[in-house]
Amino acid sequence: MAGVALGAHRGRRGVGLGGLTGAVTLAASEAVARARQRPGELPALWQRTATSAALVAPAGWAAGRLAGAGPVAVGAATGGVGGLLGLRPQKVLLGPLVGAAVGTALAARARPVPPAAAASITMAAYRCVSPLLFRDPQVSLLAERVPAQRLPFVVPRQARSRRVGTGYVRELAEELGGHYVADAADVGIVASLDDLAGPDLDPAGVDPLVREFYEHTTRFTLDIVPRWRLWVRPGYLLYRTALARPLGQANVPMNQRETQRGIRSRIDTISPPGTPPDTEAVAVRGWIRSFADTDEPIYVGIYTTYRHRDRGYVSVGFPLPQASFTATLLPRSRADGGLTLTSRSDQEHPGHYLAYRDPTDGSLTALAVHGFAEELDVHRDEGELRAEHSFFLFGIPFLVLHYRITRKQPTPR
Q: What b-and-e string marks burial along 315-350, b requiring 16 or more CB atoms within 10 Å of the CB?
């Protein structure tokens, strides 16, 4: 299609020749890039640049044909698309600027530049300039088709259907064949804080109330007050409408008015087949938070702990259709007896990972999402538990969830 669009201004012969040339050129470059690509690497930048330039050519042709857009308009729009795909706020601003500059330069030429060519040239220019200004990759290919044991920081629990929802752990139990307990009593998101001991955390120094919350989470209720940064709200509303609600996953309340509907918090567990259904034998802990009035999902997270060398880590897997998103967090003690879980660390494992598990052999292909970070602080404030869950995108804070954590009242008999 790119070759057809680029050759359209030359008539039928140009369309045919352009289509053939484009197909051969892209196929050859793809073959060379794949041959030189090493395991665990993304395709070469030059190949990704060529592919991006080819993809926008038909859109440039359509803009010129249907709207009469010139090089400046096509360049600015193409640069804007490139910036949006880069996600980073700085790239969102950079894209239209580069596009407008390239479009202006093309418009100044004595010989007119076709809109399709203007779009391709702009995208290629943006893809060349962007890595020079932003050298730290925000997403990288971590592993390709490797055994799950090689990635202990990834929780490869994926949804088999298009929706995750509050029934996910029950469906997972049917798949695994374990003993399922809905809304388990007196269970925590971790079995013991002792499993997390390391140079940054002495469990003996953790406030007993904080420890009780982690080891017996179901004894408590949570009230949430979300604080969104203004700049991220439009994008989040689009994401929530198009993805979060249909998926039944990562559907964070937009404001305090929504949280007044009430938040239901529960943990569903799965015990291995043949073992008694008690907390000591729990193999899967699924912490489910939903709106109390409709049970509409907010989060469905699979909580795990593991040790690597002399440290313990918390890995939370968020199932997605045919994939999973994992947050691996490093525990740290607070001076006031509180506990911090953070992905912002120089250690090898903390971070966020998007993984696909091959259904045929169980191997994992995983991306490391460097541009996303989070930090959870749980502590006592004037005798009551409080928590602040902060999220960062490309180093810029965009959301803080403030939690008031209170002990459940005994159920009247």
A: bbbbbbeebbbbbbbbbbbbeeebbbbbbebebebb
Q: Residue 156 in 3-state DSSP?
A: coil
CB atoms within 10 A of CB 61: 26
Rounded-to-integer distance, Cα 75 and Cα 19, Å: 23
Dihedral, 124, 126, 130, 131 alpha carbons, nearest 10: 10
Name residue, tokens 């949280």. Answer: 259
Which of 326, 371, 333, 314 is CA-nearest to residue 353?
A: 326
Domain positions in the chain are 1-133, 140-407
How confident is the chain (413 residues) per 10-residue block, as mean pLDDT? 57 60 68 69 71 81 79 86 74 82 85 82 85 74 89 93 93 90 94 96 96 96 93 89 93 90 92 66 91 93 95 96 96 97 95 93 91 96 94 91 91 59
DSSP state of 305: E
Q: How far is CA 216 from CA 145, 270, 316, 339, in A?
A: 37, 16, 17, 15
Q: Taking Cα atoms as reference points, which of 322, 394, 315 lies closest to residue 352?
A: 315
Give yes or no for a contact between 87 and 74, defined as CB atoms under 8 angstroms apart: no
**Residue 117: Cβ-neighbour burial (10 angstroms; 0-12, 13-18, 19+):** buried
Cβ proximity of 326 and 275 under 8 Å: no
- Give me the amino acid identity at 382: E
User: CA angle 266-269-272, nearest 5°?
Assistant: 175
Let me know: does 91 contact 130? Beta carbons within 8 Å: yes
Predicted pLDDT of residue 287: 97
DSSP string, 174-191: HHHT-EEETT-SS--SSS
DSSP 10: G
Q: Are 369 and 363 in contact (CB under 8 A)?
A: no
Q: What is the pLDDT of residues 166-225, one digit of tens each?
A: 999 999 999 888 899 999 999 999 999 999 999 999 999 999 999 999 999 999 999 999
Instruction: Answer for the pair 213, 207: CB distance below 8 angstroms, yes or no.
Output: no
